[in-house]
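so i finally got all the pieces together for this one. its two components total, 344 residues if u count the protein bits. some of the lines might not be protein, just check the labels. i wanna see the whole assembly predicted at once instead of chain by chain like last time, that was a mess tbh
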Amino acid sequence: MRNAADRDRFYMNLALSEAGKAADAGEVPVGAVLVCDGEAIALAHNRREELQNPVAHAEALALQAASFHLKSWRLEDCSLYVTLEPCVMCVGAILQARIARLVFGCLDPKAGAVESLYRLCEDSRLNHTLPVTRGVLENECSSILSEFFRHLREGNRVVKRAERWPSPVEGA
Amino acid sequence: MRNAADRDRFYMNLALSEAGKAADAGEVPVGAVLVCDGEAIALAHNRREELQNPVAHAEALALQAASFHLKSWRLEDCSLYVTLEPCVMCVGAILQARIARLVFGCLDPKAGAVESLYRLCEDSRLNHTLPVTRGVLENECSSILSEFFRHLREGNRVVKRAERWPSPVEGA
């Protein structure tokens, strides 16, 4: 790859394909990739519903997979790529793992803890701070989410209509 | 048990015995208990070093064990007891799991995200808020940590001395 921006897009595309797997499984489509020395050592997508686990966000799963792979909770040489701005829990996990750099796609105005609601990655009182790059493949990262929620709303609307006007068979 | 304060002390004692297991294993001694309908459904202690997992704090492990037990990421009827004020990651996990009530023992001035550095449990912009009780068995919860770090410092001091003044055998 020619330069750092190309590399960021390459890894964010990997994260996007992980987000696609989440969408296919009916999960909020967020994907994450952990990169160490130029190698993607962990790929993960949101699996909260599948695993019924409140911690099973893409980032937390990627961090844990990378730690398992490297046999260390310290991931000081690793960068995390994630399609959506991480929440409080996931930024906390990123800080715990001492991640070197965070790259994310689009903002999460309702829950983001990097820029939107808090700026946790730059709080020098915490045990770690790290540089952040945002907006890599922003439109693609945002679109996969808005498409997912549009389908969900349309699906819900159909269900509500069916509840309101029972089919001739059900209403007979 | 006679009243709510007795119950809180009872469950915090369980959390303290979990913290003791962490200390015995050389981990920072923090313990957590998840209580649902008066029953302790999950007990956990910090296992970060043992598992080499940055997410393996007592609270995160207890939440996940409870979710596995109840087959649900939503723990809306559960209270979490933890010996030390939770960090950013763990408060984030508590909010993700929609925990009904948090009880903790002593403050963590360097990393606590309930009162010390942030007040994340009462931020109405986030997806969940919850009542917090602090100071239950505060001295015991604090003592087990200060004892642990005192032993660690003494151990480290011995190591440093040995490095500085090699034993006659090593220095020969």
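The two ends of chain A are 65 Å apart (CA to CA).
The longest helix of chain A spans residues 138-164.
anyway lmk what u think
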